[in-house]
Amino acid sequence: MLLPDGLKDASRPLAASLPNDAGEWNGQAGAEDDDLVNSTVRFDEKGDAQAPYIIYNYRRNYSTGELQYIQVGKWLGVEEGLELMAGDITFGSRETHDRVIPVSVCSAECGIGEVKKVQAGDHCCWICTRCEPHEFVVNESTCADCGPSRWPHPHKRSCFDLPVQHMQWDSLFAAVPIAVAILGIVLTCGTIAVFLRNNETPIVKASGRELSYMLLSGILICYLMTFGVGLGFSIIYGSLLTKTNRISRIFDSARRSARRPSFISPKSQMVITCMLISVQVMATLIWFVLEPPATRTEYPEGRRNQVILKCKIRDSSFLVSLVYNMFLITTCTVYAIKTRKIPENFNESKFIGFTMYTTCIIWLAFVPIYFGTGNNFQVQITTLCVSISLSAYVALFCLFSPKVYIVLFHPDKNVRKLTMNSATYKKAPTSSTTGVGGGGGPPGHNQSGGPGATVNNQPPTTCTTGRLHGYDVCRTME
């Protein structure tokens, strides 16, 4: 290199650091000098200049909307190091503010629960595919099903047994039906105690003691039993069917003749009721033989991570088991409508009618709810239990609360009614032919004076009397 004389001395330190003719570095590591713009230039032991660098981030300028190089740092050499404004570096849009540094690789490693799927014709790269929720990762390219009643661990490398779910005693879905049933048991036992203590009073006798106790036992079974659901219903509605049928036959016969209808004695009524109940018992026994009681595990649709313990019966089988009781309910309702206009002394048929109407409403609401909640066993079981208890409550309150109220709070009304509130059916005196007023009294005068007596302003009527179940029924003679 040729330099002016005046520059020889100034250039000597730099020249001493330049390579010689053999390409060897003559200087020392860390040699430095100022360049033409008075910036310090450093050299390493190999003679490479350790120049500073400016670091730019090529991105959009959000103020102008243009893509620009934005300075975000400097490299000042080994000694002074790196000055970097990392907060100003972005790789995504303004909306996402992506701070993740992009990596230039063919395919990234798969995450937890993912396996590699190699594309056809490309053996070096792959795509990651997620396993199904019920599958675990066997190796880097294979998923496998955990199987029934099992679920993968969070790391997706193995499976564990799922806990079996069933109705818990401390669950709200169990506590509500239990509380309702306990209250019903207490009220039913109290009603039985009142009837037993006043067993010889007119109110209890007039209600038909034998069928009343049968009804109360059926109501109690509805609250107590955890199996054989149809038995309690068959006892209740079999007894009600027998009672409404007896009332209907008594007054139908009275309209035609004075002859006493057959099979209206208490003993006959109990036999008929037992026969109606036996049909349900036989059907239940056959059902138990064809489909023995057992349990099964079930997986709700779309929720394989749940295992539910349920009774091993089909919903259709349960519905079939209630068909006979539906027949009894329908028949009782028909008789209740048929006997709704009988004399006031037999106004129990009106309470029976109200019982049947309410029961029909309960079961019309129960059936769609029960079969529409198959995927929620708690709601389904709670609906069944509450519906059974409500049916028992309706029978208990509608049929027995008026009698218990009179026995406990109005004992003065607990006497035999002497007249029948009807222009066709009347309590007749001992003679076979008489006026309506009875005892030779004027028309419209009530001679009895007993509870339930009514004033009848109709002209005297000649009638033929016949004694039906303790009452003289008057059949009008035209």
| Major beta sheet, strand line-up | 3-4-5
Measured distance between first and last alpha carbons: 157 Å
Helix content: 25-40%
CATH topology annotation of the domain at 191-413: Rhopdopsin 7-helix transmembrane proteins
What is the molecular shape? elongated
- Please tally the β strands and state the result: 16
Low-confidence stretches: 1-18, 418-478
Element-by-element helix/strand order: HEEEEEEEEEEEEHHHHHEEHHHHEE
Number of helices: 10
- By CATH reckoning, the class of the domain at 191-413 would read Mainly Alpha
Q: State which percent range the strand residues make up.
A: 15-25%
**Mind describing the biggest β-sheet?**
3 strands, antiparallel
Radius of gyration, whole Å: 49 Å
CATH architecture annotation of the domain at 191-413:
Up-down Bundle
Averaged pLDDT, please? 75
- Name the structural class: alpha+beta
Explain how this protein is built:
Among the domains are: 49 residues, Tumor Necrosis Factor Receptor, subunit A, domain 2, CATH 2.10.50; 223 residues, Rhopdopsin 7-helix transmembrane proteins; 61 residues, no CATH class. It has ten helices and 16 strands. The strands form seven sheets. Strands 3-4-5 form a three-stranded antiparallel β-sheet, with no helix packed on it. A hairpin with a 5-residue loop joins strand 1 and strand 2. The protein is elongated, with a radius of gyration of 49 Å. The N terminus and C terminus are likely disordered.
